[in-house]
Amino acid sequence: MYALLIINATFLGLATYGDVPVAHSLGMPAALLLGVMARGGLWLFRNFKTPSPDQIRRYLTGTIIASAILSVAFGLWGFTLLGEAPPNRTTAIALFVFVGSISCCYCLQALPVAGLSVLVFGAMPITVRLLASGDGYLIGVGLTFVMVSVVVLRAMVASHNAFTTALDARSEMAELVAALRDSDERYRLASQATSDVIWDVPLHGDQIGWSSAVGFTLGYPEALAGTNRQWWYDRIHPEDLPRIGVDAASLKDRNFTHWTQEFRVLAGSGDYLTMRSRGFVVRDPDGRATRLVGSLQDVTAQKRYEHELRQAAHYDSLTRLPNRLLFAERLDAALADARQNGGSVGLIVFDVDRFKTINDSLGHDAGDALLREVAARLERVAPPGATAARLAGDEFAIIIPSLGDSGMGMAQIADLLAQISSPMMHAGRHIDVSLSAGFAAAFQDGSTADEIHKSADLALYAAKRDSRGGLREFKRDLRDAAEREKHMLSDARAGLQADWIVPFYQPKICLKSGAVLGFEALLRWHHPQQGLRSPASISAAFEDPGTSVQITDRMLERTITNMARWADRGVPFGRVAINGSPEDFRRGDVADRILTRLADVDLPPSMFELEVTETVFLGQLAEKVSIALKTLSAAGIKIALDDFGTGYASLTHLKQFPVDTIKIDRSFVSRLTMVDSDDSAIVGAVIELARSLGITTVAEGVETATQAAHLIVKGCDSGQGYLFGRPMAAEQVAAFLADWDSEAVARLCGSADWGGAAMQSYRNRFF
To answer: pTM, whole model, 2 decimals?
Structure first.
């Protein structure tokens, strides 16, 4: 480029000498030539050094800047000459400058930015002057220059792209050559460093070559000298032998280059190892296979680990039975087979009765031993082809894939469960084993795995409700009951959200004085269509942990708010009781919730009573219940034991927990007459027991004067029931107390029909 600039500047200066001022014909090109020669000398001087990448980048940047400066100088000189030379010399000067600029562009194809600057700054000034001259001929020349410039620019771009591609390809080829040069050495070192066995099988001959790893990996150091193919075949597991090797058709296929296989090989130790073989086909220039090469990798440990992972993923770690995941897979497979063959599938779901109690009383080691024993018995007695699984906790299942051919009916299932339910011994202690089970069959009880499992679960829940240790077969009414429970839960949640749940208050009357001692807050809720409903219509909600606690919180909030309002108005409401559920104690904060609410409205705890059923004393809740009740009792809140005699409480619970009141269940009170009967004896015994322990008694469900009179005779402290008052809204309590007549109890008892009660009790004798 520098040489072209020197030639162009020299001859253009000489050609215009005499037509333009000397300073322009000789002076300006002389200054331009000095700059060009200085830049060219600097470029030649750099060729004697090996530059670094950073220096090369600086050189290229300098070249671009120099090209722009020299082009500007050359273009301005040509622009000046056009204005001073005679008109007949205009075209020649323009062509001289333009051709010189294009020539320099081609010298700078590797640096398109520099070439573009030469074209723009060198040729563009004269081109613009020609286009603006107003002369048609000169304008035509200018347009020609523009078109040629566009062509030159496109050629430069294409040339630069090709040049860049060539450089990239050359760089990649150099890297590939270097990689190939090192690959043989790396492969040799890798084969020595790894335990992989390298093998080489020429297709013409009977020999197999082995790497040194054949000695320490497979245990055959003698194989280093090579073996024949039969030697190798004799050491492959007979079951895997048909699957190894490459067939002739694959070898003829030029696209077939590699393969992978796994098989078992007899090692020198006498054990079978699982090997993964990777083979490659070596072909000649015509594509014909000439040899097979590859490697053998010992994957025995990996396969063992994968097997352990599969076991962990599909089998229960405690009982070694299939877990829920494998159970689901087996059930799906059994259903698919039954659909295809027109069969049926039976599903038994069962759990261990009172398992939590065993865990809590005897320890988790006893619970684990019980589960293992149940699993072992289950495997022994399960029908042939059946899948026995542990689903979760103490829940098990049995899949009977061919129900029609198995001969398993309800009687056989009951016998199977009886064999599992025999007592067992653990650490010298006797443990009773009791199972409750539900049974469902495809496709009458459901067409999918989920539907059948749900049907069996519903039957199990029904069996547990009926009696522990029972077996129930799924019936349609169980699903209807489940739907009702679902609607109950939905209604309860809607009632909480819409604020439909309110407390109603039933009075408690002192049977000695007739005075109102207080009230029990009973749940009621307003159905938008059916009006005021009892808690029985949402009973399923009390078994749902989250909903049950929310209901208690709502009742606490409303009841304590009503108590505060009555206190502010001077209403003598006495003590108000509210019911606590097992779920309230499970959270462990029931005492704080009650005491905090009472403190917020400045009510003394002595005005509050908590009623609990006997079920809260059982199982793992006992400790939490004990802590909560002792905290409440210490604060002054009274504790009442509700539904006494209908649950599982023992006399020790009356000593273990701070119980102030026993509530005699309405089932005993409803059958009381004025003469002695079994129920009368039970009620009397409860009252005497409570009196001896310093505990007060409340009789629930008192509806007749005869029942009230009998309770007074027995010495019961107080009564509650329709005889004294039905549950009422909070707004009615003040009026009820104002109108209450304490002497009414005595008058009611005096009106009791003693003779009629006696005749009713002994009607079988008189009639």
So the answer is: 0.51
